[in-house]
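Q&A log
Question type: sequence-to-structure
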Amino acid sequence: MNYENILVADQNGIATVTINRPDKLNALNKNTISELHEAFKTLQHNPEIRVIVVTGSGEKAFVAGADISEFANFSIEEGAQLAAQGQESLFDYVENLKTPVIAAVNGFALGGGLELAMACHFRVASENAKMGLPETSLGVIPGYGGTQRLPQLIGKGRAMEMIMTAGMINAEQALQFSLVNYVVPQPELLSFCYGIAEKIMKNSPIAIGKAIKAVNANFKEGEDGFKTEIKAFGYCFGTEDFKEGTTAFLEKRKPVFPGK
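Response status: OK
Response body:
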């Protein structure tokens, strides 16, 4: 499928999704969000894709925020609808994908860009990365899950400070806050992410998908994460992956998971 604002490539089971609006520092507009949804949906249903890496084009920005010109004149109702639709179609969708999604944060990740990175299952940053939620400086708050995911990742106090000051943190601070897992030189960012992806791909895709669901359940109101884990654990016993994994262990060989 041809996209206007993103690029999708895959090799050896790893898909790379690149937000490609360099003239806008890869800012998210409605069309880009829609295209990202379609890309993730397509990749989710491709059994050959085991890991997805998301990044931005160029070396300046992952995603430098949302396209403010699109919603500057919105009404209360339109603003609420914008947030609701965006959360459902992209940010929540990415968080709940059964396929692991790694954010390769290559520069500015601000506003909606940081919210997209936080929706991914974990993040790796380049040394020049800067992250923040500057929405309060525009008279609004983060609307794509930022007020929820940032405190989950870095703690309430630090999240409150970042949101209220509308300030940015650099890559080393993000690492210290556990907002990112690693910081690497810019030229090594994608290859480093691919290295992690290759480690993930050695394991059962069914088990990984269930693990994502179980971990996420702990952060969802009204869900019992322990019960979700028990159900997912039991489900795994009926899969071909479980049979292959346990048989390979007993036979002292490396497993070859069918993903079923």
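Response note: The first strand starts at residue 6 and ends at 11.
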